[in-house]
Design a protein that fits this description.
alpha+beta, 9-stranded antiparallel beta sheet, 4-stranded antiparallel beta sheet, 10% strand
């Protein structure tokens, strides 16, 4: 016999697979060296971007964000550069994105819900004071004429001013005029063509003549000459009040993010402050939103439950029909059935909106011979149309789910029912359906939660119309809570109220959570019975 000497294959360890170091941390493989270089280069890029981002955050005064970002990146470097910690290397990206796109959003939404954030309250008090003064300025009649040059650095613009005494000064929208010997370094003078090109930015230049904004600002209309503009509203920093120099009206800080006069008028803009539970109280006490909110909430439940039931019922019916063992051409029928589910919901909503058009829609003109049925204009017809269109979009999903669940049911149980003399309906009701619910109940709960927030089909099909006539808000008969929140947050009808929209979002979250908890408990009870 000839002894064949074979080299023993090195045993792969978790460290060798997951890290460039072996178990004892002393030897590197060629693949490990490549992986290590890749990690170092990638982390170097991340660290460089982080340093730049932290520099920007510190410059804007966002110290908390800068510290959090620094700690997160330090943790990422520790996880990926230290040998071992293999689970952390896989979990870190997912946890990071979870924290950024889920946890942070939830926390920030909760914070905004307790503030007055909105169109007129979106910044700090100091920004509001400066904006109030600038928006109420008029040119001083006897203002001297200043010769100016418009300078540009990146996206920022500034004015180099030749003052009447012969000295030069430079300033921007954020920086008051300061004496200089010439154009600051890094700033470039704009020629006439560039001034015309950046006309909007040049006209927006509002440079304070001193540290006291009440002394006025310089503005230019042609990029060559500038004049002093002074506000008719004078701010008293010691008293924290605005006084209209023409009428003598005094505006004081009302503690709710506005300067308010005795007659109730306020100056715009205000600033963002914490107002506690006022947004929640407003949603339930103000007639303009309380009654529409109640109707929208009821319709939201009807829409979510009705859509889920209709989609499930139709999907289950088709799944039973196409699961018959003697039916031919099943795969072709199944392809046709799931086609609506394959099309984008947003596109389908727009197509159905055109088909349901009262004057020119395909359904009225072709299928109904020129009928004049207001499918999307009548409140009840619009609601029925929304339910039917959503059923069209969702039954394909339920068909796939129910088909899989039916095919997984044990045949011996069905055969036992037949031997006991049960008919097809009794077998379905007493055998198949309970077993089917065990499999699909969690999916029905998820479908209900999805339909409860099904923004796409409502907004693309009706945009919430027809509108309610007893409120000034842009809320309609087919609006569900999520579309109402969108309109409150970003609609133009009643202004943008981010605080109220966030409060309503929390209410939606609470409702869906309670429904999900109760439903899952019922699902657990159903599993125990089976």
């Amino acid at each position: 016999m000839t002894d064949v000497k074979q080299d023993a294959a090195p045993r792969k360890t978790g460290a060798a697979l997951g890290d460039p170091f072996n178990r004892n941390g002393r030897r590197l493989t060629s693949g490990g060296i490549t992986a290590l270089i890749f990690k170092v280069v990638l982390l170097g890029i991340i660290d460089a971007v982080t340093i730049f981002a932290v520099y920007i955050l510190i410059g804007t005064g966002d110290w908390i964000a800068a510290v959090i970002l620094t700690l997160v990146v330090i943790g990422v470097n520790y996880i990926y550069l230290r040998p071992g910690l293999l689970p952390g290397k896989y979990l870190a990206p997912g946890l990071t994105f979870l924290a950024v796109f889920q946890v942070f959003v939830i926390i920030y939404t909760g914070f905004i819900a307790f503030t007055n954030a909105g169109d007129a309250h979106n910044s700090t008090k100091q920004d509001a004071i400066e904006q109030i003064i600038r928006t109420s300025q008029d040119r001083v009649p006897d203002s001297p004429e200043y010769t100016v040059q418009v300078l540009k650095q990146g996206d920022q613009f500034g004015l180099l001013v030749a003052e009447p005494g012969g000295t030069l000064a430079f300033g921007t929208n954020e920086q008051p005029l300061e004496d200089v010997d010439g154009a600051p370094g890094g700033w470039n003078e704009l020629n006439l063509n560039q001034i015309i090109r950046f006309q909007d930015e040049v006209l927006a230049l509002n440079v304070q003549v001193s540290d006291d904004i009440n002394d006025g600002t310089l503005r230019t209309s042609d990029g060559q000459k500038a004049y002093v503009y002074v506000s008719s509203l004078e701010y008293d920093e010691a008293a924290d009040t605005f006084t209209n120099t023409e009428t003598g009206t005094v505006y004081v800080d009302d503690g709710r993010g506005d300067f308010r006069a005795e007659d109730g008028t306020t100056l715009t803009p205000g600033w963002r402050v914490v107002i506690g539970w006022d947004n929640f109280a407003y949603a339930f006490t103000n007639d303009q939103i309380r009654d529409p909110l109640l109707r929208v909430t009821i319709w939201t439940f009807v829409f979510a439950i009705g859509s889920t039931f209709l989609c499930f019922a139709l999907g289950l019916f088709l799944a039973i029909v196409l699961n018959h063992p003697t039916l031919r051409g099943k795969k072709y029928y199944r392809i046709l059935i799931i086609l609506p589910y394959a099309f984008p919901a947003y596109l389908t909503g727009l197509v159905w909106a055109g088909m349901l058009n009262q004057q020119f829609g395909f359904i009225n003109e072709v299928l109904l011979g020129g009928a004049d049925i207001p499918w999307l204009a009548d409140p009840w017809l619009a609601r029925i149309s929304v339910l039917l269109v959503n059923m069209w979009l969702g039954y394909g999903y339920m068909f796939l789910v129910c088909t899989g669940a039916l095919q997984s049911l044990p045949e011996d149980i069905v055969e036992a029912g037949k031997m006991d003399g049960a008919g097809a309906w009794r077998i379905f009701r007493s055998v198949k359906l309970p077993l089917l619910f065990v499999a699909v109940a969690p999916l029905l709960i998820a479908t209900f939660a999805y339909n409860f927030n099904n923004f796409g089909v409502i907004y693309m099909l009706t945009k919430g119309a027809p509108r309610f006539t007893d409120t000034t808000l842009d809320i309609g008969a087919t609006d569900i809570m999520i579309t109402m929140v969108y309109k409150v947050a970003f609609g133009s009808g009643g202004g943008r109220d981010l605080g109220l929209a966030s409060a309503l979002s929390i209410l939606i979250f609470i409702i869906v959570t309670v429904v999900a908890i109760v439903s899952f408990r019922q699902t657990k009870a159903l599993e125990d019975l089976n």
